[in-house]
Amino acid sequence: MGLEYLYMICILLSSCLLFLTVYLMITLSDLESDYINSRDCAEKLNFWTMPRLIMQVTHSSLLLVGYQWMVFLISFPFSTYLMYRRVKQRPGHSGLYDPTEIHNRETLRYHLQESLVFMGYHLFSFFFYMYMIVSSLTGNTENPAVSKEVPW
C-alpha cells in the first residue's frame, strides 16, 4: 500500500473524528446551557463512544502498519486514553457518560476540556496529513507546494 493511500485513509478518519468531536462538544455545550436534559445527552454521547474508539484505533494501527513511527507515537496516546476510559467504565453505568453524573459541573467541564484537546489533535492531524499527501504526490519533500518541473 502506497503512502498516498495511507494518507488518504488517515485524512478520511481524521475528518470523521474531527466532525464527531465537534458533535460531542456541541452536545455537551447544549447540556451546559440546559437546551437538552442529561439523559438525552448521555444517550447521544454513549451512542458514539464505540465508533469513536474503533476509528481512533484503526487510525493508529494504519500508521503502525504503514511504518509511520513518529506519527504513530503522536497518535498512540490518544488511542490508549480512549481504550483506558472504556476499560475503566464503572459497572452498572449506562456508558462512559452517566446521566446522573454528567450534569455535575466538574464532570461537564472535564468532558468539554477533553473534547477540546481531541478537537485540537484531530485538526492538527488533518492538516498534517494534507501536507504529507501533497508532498508524497509531488515528490518534492522540501516544499510540496512548488513543483520541480513546469508541466507546459
Shape: elongated
Mean pLDDT: 87
Percentage of helical residues?
A: over 70%
Structural class assignment:
mainly alpha
Number of helices: 5
State the order of secondary-structure elements, H for helix, E for strand: HHHHH
Q: How widely separated are the two ends? A: 31 Å
Low-confidence stretches: none
How is the biggest beta sheet arranged?
Answer: none
Q: What share of the residues does DSSP label as strand, in percent?
A: under 5%
How many E strands? 0
Gyration radius, in Å: 19 Å
Concise synopsis of the structure shown:
The protein has 152 residues and is mainly α.
Descriptive report:
The protein has 152 residues and is mainly alpha-helical. The protein has helices at residues 3-32, 38-47, 49-65, 69-87, 105-138. The chain is elongated. The two termini are 31 Å apart. The model has no long low-confidence stretch (mean pLDDT 87).
